[in-house]
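Hi P.,

Sorry for the delay on this. The queue was packed all week, but I finally got your sequence through. Input first:
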Amino acid sequence: MKKALILGATTILTLGFSSGFLSNIAHANENISNEITGLPVASLAEDASEVIFEVAPYVHKNDQGFLYVDSSIPQDVYIKNELAVLEKSFEEINRQVKNGQVVVNEDLSITNLSVTNKYKFMAAARKGYTSKTYWWGVRATYTDSQAKKAIKQLEDASDTEQDYATILFWLPPVAGIAGITGVYCKKLGKAMKSHNKGKGVILDMTWALTYKVKSR
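Then the structure:
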């Protein structure tokens, strides 16, 4: 399996969690289009489902309600899937658990308790999509018109190779500027366009910034 596009995932994913896009865990074998973003080198990944499926058995919650990666995880799996980045994001989630801002449920879904985060969530809902955050990243849901606007921004960014900050309005909070390239924007825009059948799309992004797109 190809490696994901690398973005600065630790900061990126932390931004997503602290923005309040927290909800139920998505099962790795769901038939949904995902690509992952996130680390210190850049290449493109075709599918995040494999990564989620491989890592999910090693992700747990302890008695304090904190997320952690089981120490029994094989070293090759840990390295290949850049789990140091995922663990860093868990540190932020666990900090919020400790502060009473979020709670990790038994199924590893994350319920947001912060009023501030809820306001941020509502603000995001007024943006270009609505979204939920899972232990592995973020799922964004776009209407048809929202998807078309996001696709246009991605296409423009792929043509100009600049001003990537503009497209962040249309992407989940997992996404960040560092490491985003015109090729990445073009590929993501193409995937969203091909899956938009007039009802919008669902976009999943993981801690490694690979993504997958599904028709609504």
